[in-house]
Specification:
InterPro entries: CFA/CMAS (IPR050723), CMAS (IPR003333), MeTfrase_dom (IPR020803), SAM-dependent_MTases_sf (IPR029063). The protein has 17 helices and eleven strands. It is an alpha/beta fold and about 425 residues long. It folds into two domains: about 100 residues, Nonspecific Lipid-transfer Protein, Chain A; about 270 residues, Rossmann fold. It is elongated, with a radius of gyration of 23 Å.
């Protein structure tokens, strides 16, 4: 029985109507000739990576290593491949497929150096710090190119579909402040504050005394400089600190924007218990995080691309688990909102920024890490657009001993 050309393998796996042109090092071709997007399988090493880790991880390894190249828009490539049919194979077709793939299984290739596996106890302070450092202590210059002037690395809120990224990030910060009902003189704790954008916005526009904490030294340094530039040192502070080491309490509001994904489901009771202990009666929590729609398993892609290359130890759960975990600690949920389409728009803007600064980004962080980011942004955008993952904001309050919440009968968050 003869072996197959690479294109024949892809035809079996992806189906005959693939809308992406795929070319291979053996001269074979599959998919739509002359397509606006093309995937080029450059070497046997690429096939070994694909076979040794079927699915997203193998494809990611081959792309990060440069053994597979995408021509045209990477998001379009991934979106079309995700929509490709997976035909049923006959016994004879499976036998030919296995025979062709056997040499690649034997020829195992090590993953790219950008892949990380952390040591130590999961979600210990040391390991959490290492996980955050891996992703966030890359280069503030690189992040400035990707995120834009706001340095906001969470889902923006687009007041209109054609709003700029900066307008949308400003609206996100303000929406959080409005949901928290911030007023001058109140105290805000921002857990996982990033580069301090919300801390600055809340102090500057709402007159609150704000403390932000982050495990990234580079983020903290940037945030402190931003506070000084804005002349807000009397009101705002950004610390390089684990949230578990915050001793102050009696906060009027606590924001957790894009941090719950790093906490781990097993630690939700202690996390939201900590928040409850730091809020004053009638104080509010705004929890903003990515969730998954698949409820069949505990973790999402535990050993996949995102966990190995982007967010080590990250864990996504369905939105209902977040709500339940918050309520289990005696906090009362008053409002919930899904902003997943806004995150797809945010990621598209970040991808454009990266492409516009591609040469500088490669020079700053290296080709491998730049390719990790290009793939990560495109894959995440596809996840939100296809409703595989979502972005939920949950507003909760800590009622007083008599059950009084201090929340108005009708909550309104618009700017009118």
């Amino acid at each position: 029985m003869t072996t197959l050309k690479i294109a024949d393998v892809l035809a079996l796996v992806l189906g005959p109507e693939c809308a992406v042109e795929i070319t291979a090092y053996d001269g074979s071709q599959h998919g739509e000739p002359g397509s606006d997007v093309r995937l080029d399988i450059r070497s046997p090493r690429a096939m070994s990576m694909l076979v040794s880790a079927p699915g997203q991880l193998g494809l990611a390894r081959a792309y990060v290593a440069g053994e597979i190249e995408a021509h045209g828009d990477l998001y379009t490539v991934m979106d079309r491949l995700a929509g490709a049919g997976l035909p049923e194979l006959s016994v004879a077709e499976r036998a030919r497929l296995y025979r062709t793939m056997a040499p690649f299984v034997i020829r195992r290739v090590p993953p790219p150096p950008e892949e990380v596996r952390l040591g130590g106890s999961r979600h210990s302070k040391r390991r959490d710090a290492d996980a955050i450092s891996h992703h966030y202590d890359v280069s503030n210059t690189f992040y400035r190119w990707v995120l834009g002037p706001s340095m906001a690395y969470t889902c923006a809120v687009f007041p209109e579909a054609d709003a700029t990224l900066e307008e949308a990030q400003a609206e996100k910060f303000d929406l959080v402040c409005r949901k928290l009902g911030l007023q001058a003189g109140q105290r805000l704790l921002d857990i996982g504050c990033g580069w301090g954008g919300l801390v600055v916005h809340a102090s500057k526009h709402y007159g609150v005394r704000a403390i932000g904490v982050t495990l990234s030294e580079r983020q903290a340094s940037w945030g402190r400089a931003a506070i000084e530039r804005e002349g807000l040192s009397a009101l705002a502070e950004v610390r390089h600190q684990d949230y578990r080491d915050v001793l102050e309490s009696g906060f009027d509001a606590i924001s957790s924007i894009g941090l719950t994904e790093h906490i781990g489901l097993a630690n939700y009771p202690s996390y939201f218990g900590f928040i409850k202990s730091r809020l004053k009666p009638t104080g509010r929590l705004l929890n903003h995080c990515i969730t998954r729609t698949d409820t069949s398993s505990r973790t999402m892609y535990k050993n996949g691309f995102i966990n190995r290359y982007v967010f080590p130890d990250g864990e996504l759960v369905p939105a209902g688990r977040i709500v339940s975990a918050i309520e289990d600690q005696g906090l009362e949920v008053r409002h919930e909102e899904n902003l997943r389409e806004h995150y797809a728009l945010t990621l598209a803007a970040w991808s454009r920024n990266l492409d516009e600064h591609w040469d500088e980004a490669v020079a700053e962080v290296g080709m491998g890490r730049a390719r990790v980011w290009r793939l990560y942004l495109a894959a995440s955008r596809m996840g939100f657009a296809r409703n595989m993952i979502q972005l939920h904001q949950v507003l909760a309050v800590s009622p007083d001993e008599n059950g009084f919440s201090g929340v108005p009968l009708r909550l309104k968050f618009d700017t009118a």
